Amino acid sequence: xxxxxxxxxxxxxxxxxxxxxxxxxxxxxxxxxxxxxxxxxxxxxxxxxxxxxxxxxxxxxxxxxxxxxxxxxxxxxxxxxxxxxxxxxxxxxxxxxxxxxxxxxxxxxxxxxxxxxxxxxx
Length: 122
Description:
This protein is of the alpha+beta class. It has one domain (3-117): ADP-ribosylation fold. 26% of the residues lie in helices and 37% in strands. The strands form 3 sheets. A 4-stranded antiparallel sheet has the order 1-5-8-9. A 3-stranded antiparallel sheet has the order 4-7-6. The chain has a two-stranded antiparallel ribbon with strand order 2-3. Strand 2 (24-26) and strand 3 (29-30) form a beta hairpin. The two termini are 23 Å apart.
């Protein structure tokens, strides 16, 4: 199974589970506004994105582990694309079905400002 990761606000994720569909691209932007859901390919990318995008986020966060094979079997494309610096990130071109999420990791920043989650590489 190929896995990609997505950082989500816990409340938005819980709402998506109840609705059977997640439509947030990134912090403060929907799938409709951006055109895809931002994901990460590795735990290192997750941690860097968290520090850049979510460092001052007030609510609890989760890191979703997504079965990329299940996504593509359902007909939703995942493309590796330039995140703006030449580094490639997976972009999920459609809504995320919560059934494709294999693990939901509680996540957040510790007192020293380090992003903490179960998939962390450090």
